[in-house]
Design goal:
The chain is α/β, with parallel strands linked by helices. The chain has a domain of 177 residues: TIM Barrel (Alpha-Beta Barrel). An eight-stranded parallel beta barrel has the order 1-2-3-4-5-6-7-8, surrounded by seven helices. The protein starts with 5 loop residues before the first strand and ends with a helix. The structure holds phosphoenolpyruvate. Phosphoenolpyruvate (PEP) binds next to strand 8.
């Protein structure tokens, strides 16, 4: 089935009050010129409002095509959780899509599958879109455990998610060893992992859900390697870190994804 490609820019802990909105202003018109691809930016919390404004959210009936995304959230609706940010707060700032389980949150900040699942379910229960990130470490890959790890991440991360809610889920397959390292999975290796993830989704839900769910690739994707990755049948877009901080690079990837439609 035809899946609309999706490209997200994960700004991580980069940009500031000036450069974030400036980057957003550079992206908005060019993204609008590529209607074949859905585009989102995952912005540091303090700059969500300013970036939303720069993207034109709220200022016109149609707004911009670039969705405002958050890099994380907390699952509880409110309360004594010092330092955390609720989904209601994100919605209040115009966020429509949230990353869960990014490898830096799992491996640097110690998030467990259980916490990732609680966040994923809370995002979906609040009627937002969720990008659930999974992927194996280098040790796991070298030990031949890539498929087992990704299956476990999918089953745990999506526990309790309904087939209807899956319409609002994108999976980001991001081999941990490729994130921010300049090392990129070969198109064939990425395709194999994506196809396996899709087969797991078919087992967990059904083939219609598996066919409809976007599985995007993340890990040092850039203009020079995007087209060949995106040409693979089960790679439905990209989650982009480093290359999303330069408008021209990010937009070249958006364009490459749009050309697949
Ligand atoms: C990411 O942050 O999800 C990512 C894929 O980063 P990079 O593109 O820099 O590897």
């Amino acid at each position: 089935m035809a899946r609309t490609p999706s490209v997200g820019g994960n700004w991580k802990m980069n940009t500031d009050r000036t450069t974030g909105p400036a980057l957003a202003r550079d992206l908005a018109p060019a993204a609008a010129a590529n209607p074949g691809c859905e585009v989102a930016v995952f912005v540091p919390f303090p700059y969500l409002l300013a970036v939303g404004e720069a993207l034109g959210h709220g200022s016109s009936p149609r707004g911009t095509r670039v969705r405002l995304g958050a890099q994380d959230c907390y699952f509880a609706p409110d309360g004594a959780y010092t330092g955390e940010v609720s989904i209601h707060m994100l919605k209040d700032c115009g966020v429509s899509v949230v990353l869960t389980g990014h490898s830096e949150r799992r491996h640097v900040l110690g998030e467990t599958d259980q916490l990732v699942n609680a966040k994923t379910r809370a995002v979906l229960d609040a009627d937002l879109e969720c990008v659930l990130c999974i992927g194996e470490t280098l040790d796991q890959r070298q030990a031949g455990r890539t498929d087992a790890v990704n299956e476990a991440r999918l089953r745990a991360g999506l526990a309790g998610v309904t087939a209807e809610q899956m319409a609002h889920v994108t999976i980001a397959y991001e081999p941990v060893w490729a994130i921010g390292t300049g090392k990129v999975a070969t198109p064939a290796d990425a395709q194999t992992a994506h196809a396996r993830c899709r087969a797991v989704l078919a087992e967990m839900f059904d083939s219609a859900v598996a066919d409809a769910t976007r599985i995007i690739y993340g890990g040092s994707m850039k203009p020079t390697n995007a087209a060949e990755l995106l040409a693979e049948p089960d790679i439905d877009g990209g989650l982009i870190g480093g290359a999303s901080l330069k408008a021209a690079d990010f937009l070249a990837i958006v364009e490459a994804a749009g050309e697949q439609t």
